[in-house]
Amino acid sequence: MTRDAVHKSKAKIEYVLFDMDGLLIDSERVYTQVTNEILAEYGKEMTWDIKAGLMGKPERDAATHLLSFFPDLPPEFTIDVYLQRRRVGQDALWPHVQPLPGVLKLVKHLHKHGVPIAVATGSQRRNYELKSSHLMDALFGYFGGRVVCADDGLIKSGRGKPHPDIFLVTATTCLKRGVGDGEIGESIVTEEQLAERAKGLVFEDAIPGVQAGKRAGMNVVWVPDPNLLTIGDNDANSILEKPDRTLTSLEDFKPEEWGLPPYDTE
Is 244 a catalytic residue? Predict the structure, then answer.
């Protein structure tokens, strides 16, 4: 079921952008597991109120934010040491991550009906390859290589979410949409670009991703981990940019509410 009190028709969508981690695949569990295995050696733990502030951030920014909660860690336990140890642990687990509920049905459905789709992820390209290679036939192959990663060199500013850059770049380079540059409200964004952005739908699991999608001027469906909804200041209620729809699972998404072809009757 949805968490919206009122169900109403949404914008007519012509293209769809997906986040990856925690939205398409169950990779957030790996981030948590590996980080807490490392921190446990020092008697520390990454709780969900800490983790909420990391989701959607570029790798180094997220690591800096995480370690700021543990100022008494040994000085030799630097950000670089943490990232290297985390990489080793994660690399062993990425080839085993699986799609989240509702993902395969939705992606295959959009592909079948010719709806342009792409992945816009803050993951590094090497990590994307590790996470996706075993799922090419089942999932990622349907995107036809239309994937933008944080380190592809396409985002000139190098900024991560909550800035909208990755969604704008993905729409432009992968789907050839004339969305332009700049956040909503900036003078460089034309009326034509605003109209083109309004035809896009973003799926996100992280609050910075919701912010990025809305700052891009696109429609946003938020599919959060249930733990996020129990954290007061980190709830979407605490940010200015609100998702257009919040779902407990992609299984609850109804394409026809967005002007997309409905699922086939089973």
Answer: no
User: CB atoms < 10 A from the CB of 230, how many?
Assistant: 12
Q: Does 21 participate in catalysis according to the annotation?
A: yes
Q: Are residues 48 and 172 in the same domain?
A: no
Domain that holds residue 71: 29-95
Q: Which residues contact 11 (CB under 8 A, 6 or more apart)?
A: 198, 199, 201, 219, 258, 259
19 plus 43 within the same structural domain = no
- How much is the pTM? 0.91
Radius of gyration in angstroms for the set of CA atoms belonging to the chain, rounded to a whole number: 18
CA distance 45 to 37: 9
pLDDT digits (tens, 9 = 90+) for 66-106: 999 999 999 999 999 999 999 999 999 999 999 999 999 99
Catalytic residue of the set 19, 165, 205, 225: 19
Peptide bond into 162 cis (omega under 30): yes
